[in-house]
Specification:
By secondary structure, the chain is mainly alpha-helical. It has helices at residues 10-22, 26-35, 41-53, 57-69, 76-83, 91-104, 111-123, 127-136, 142-154, 158-170, 177-190, 193-206, 212-224, 228-236, 243-255, 259-270, 277-290, 293-306, 313-325, 329-338, 345-358, 361-374, 379-391, 395-407, 438-454, 470-478, 481-492, 509-521; strands at 416-421, 424-429, 499-503, 526-529, 534-538, 541-542. 42% of the residues are buried.
Length: 548
């Protein structure tokens, strides 16, 4: 066409732009667009779409502005496309500007534009505006319904996401693999095994084609619900797997402290897929949770030597955890001081946690001082340091730390635990006052306390920092959310059924001991997922080996 000096009409020039965009030759596409004597809305939209899909969002927005200045009016596809390029620090302002233009051009209630607005408002953290746009849509399809469910899930509003799905499905919504993937993400965080199984069954009945991302979500959901066997079945039956599939399975084993399975699966993986930095993190974390100190350190040394993955602070954090588990605290401190990154609070926190287990005061004071400088408002650091001093019998220092907490008005993040029974989520806060079964729970937990003490349970009063007498401390410990959830589970589940509890924070030592004694005295298996890992308690022992 160039050699023949043929000037293509607008529609043919537009087809050239589209062809180059689809071949990922964006510079050639832009060259064609710039040389076109005439352009229509399809020409501009094709080029904007190319930039947007390639992650060149600034160029997409700049070209959109140029299009408007050229006097070309956008259509619904232009607006839906340019919205996906509204990202970064100014994203919410950009979305609002495009939204304003959509309203002026009467495209706000169009399904494509509406779905994009819902998605972008949710990603910007403005779920109320996303819901307003959704409610204004005259018609809703799978994409718009999935967008609003995804919006709630993206912001961690998992119960709301689940409720919306149930409403839409009852109203006849057709689901695709993106809908199910989004829903499984919320169910994994809620650890809702019953609903997860139902969604899995729904996927089978819908006879959806194979999607790796959907299978990965199933692996993750089952592992976070405490069903590793189901995760492994999904993994084994996958006709093809990505690195993410392997990583999800590795993370699942690691979360449950099954270190030997982590190492074995990692060796199998290296024969099929190239490991990445997430793989290494999963393996190191799995070795740490599984107590495989030497294996984890050997794998780390091998990766560093061969430079097979990009290392970050989280990888070094796992190594610190491994050294801490082995009691090699001085070596862990030396590694922190010599690593090629600035230590994060998580790394110092890992070292301080190890000092608590091994009662190493000297290293603990170094780690604690760093943490108090970096995050003076984090009550957990004061609590752990105080417990270390208490375990070492250094009561003057215990009172000094407590006084420091009062002076800085530090408050601890409130703990909450939840248990799902008959598809109802029961949430418990520390010193719960509003649960409908509060009186029955209080009576039952006192009964449990008597039985557990007779079996040798001794409350760990060091978990209470308030300056009150021992009797009051025991009463405060009884109000911890995980104890309330476990008690409620004992009251409302038949013998032989695993009690499944979730906790938003790391479980305290006293509640961990309480759960171990409950499992032994009442012969019940307890699966407790806290902020860090799974604790599977049976017959008075825990899979964490009392290190978490």
């Amino acid at each position: 066409m160039v050699k023949a000096r043929y000037r293509p009409p607008v529609y043919l020039g537009t087809r050239l732009v589209i062809m180059y965009v689809k071949c990922d030759a964006l510079d050639d596409a832009r060259n064609v667009l710039d040389r076109m004597p005439e352009r229509n809305v399809v020409s501009w939209t094709a080029m904007i779409s190319g930039y947007s899909q390639s992650g060149r969002h600034t160029e997409a927005l700049e070209l959109f502005i140029r299009m408007l200045r050229a006097g070309c009016k956008p259509n619904e596809f232009t607006l839906a496309t340019v919205l996906t390029s509204c990202c970064g620090p100014q994203s919410i302002h950009q979305v609002k500007q495009v939204h304003s233009l959509a309203s002026k051009t009467n495209f706000e209630s169009h399904m494509f534009v509406g779905s994009s607005l819902i998605d972008m408002y949710a990603k910007s953290g403005n779920i109320q505006e996303a819901r307003r746009v959704f409610d204004m849509l005259p018609e809703r399809d799978t994409v718009s319904c999935t967008a609003i469910i995804s919006g709630y899930a993206h912001l961690g509003l998992d119960e709301e996401a689940l409720d919306l799905f149930r409403q839409f499905y009852s109203a006849g919504m057709r689901c695709n693999y993106v809908t199910f993937t989004t829903l499984l993400t919320s169910l994994s965080r809620l650890a809702s095994l019953d609903y997860g199984k139902q969604v899995h069954g729904l996927i089978f009945r819908k006879e959806l084609p194979f999607f790796v991302v959907l299978q990965n979500s199933l692996i993750d959901m089952y592992s976070k619900c405490g069903k590793l066997l189901y995760s492994r079945r999904v993994f084994d039956y996958m006709p093809q797997r990505s690195a993410i599939s392997w990583n999800a399975m590795l993370m699942g084993y690691g979360r449950h402290g099954v270190g030997h399975e982590v190492v074995q699966l990692f060796r199998t993986m290296t024969e099929e897929v190239k490991p990445d930095s997430v793989t290494l993190l999963a393996v190191l974390s799995g070795c740490s949770h599984g107590g495989l100190v030497d294996e984890g350190l050997d794998i780390f040394d091998l990766i560093v030597k061969e430079q097979n993955a990009i290392l970050s602070t989280v990888h070094y954090g796992c190594v610190i955890d491994l050294l801490g588990r082995a009691g090699r605290l001085q070596k862990a401190l030396d590694l922190i001081e010599n690593m090629p990154f600035e230590p994060t609070p998580a790394i110092w926190g890992s070292l301080l946690g190890a000092c608590r287990v091994h009662v190493n005061v000297s290293v603990a004071e170094v780690a604690a001082q760093k943490l108090l400088d970096m995050e003076p408002g984090n009550a957990g650091n004061y609590v752990i340091l105080s417990n270390i001093y208490a375990a070492a019998g250094m009561w003057k220092d215990v009172f000094r730390v407590r006084k420091l907490m009062l002076e800085k008005t530090v408050s601890k993040e409130p703990g909450q635990s939840w248990i799902i029974l008959d598809k109802v989520i029961h949430t418990f806060h520390s010193s719960e006052r509003f649960h409908p079964s509060k009186k029955d729970i209080d009576a039952k937990i006192k009964e449990l306390y008597i039985d557990l003490k007779a079996a040798g349970f001794v409350p760990d009063l060091s978990c209470v920092l308030h300056d009150v007498d021992d009797e009051q401390k025991e009463r405060m410990l009884l109000g911890h959310s995980e104890k309330l959830a476990i008690t409620f589970g004992l009251m409302n589940t038949p013998p032989g059924l695993t009690i499944r509890i979730m906790k938003n924070l790391r479980i305290c030592v006293d509640c961990h001991n309480f759960a171990k004694f409950v499992s032994k005295v009442y012969g019940r298996e307890i699966s407790l997922r806290d902020k860090n890992r799974f604790h599977l308690l049976a017959d008075g022992a825990c899979t964490c080996g009392d290190y978490w």
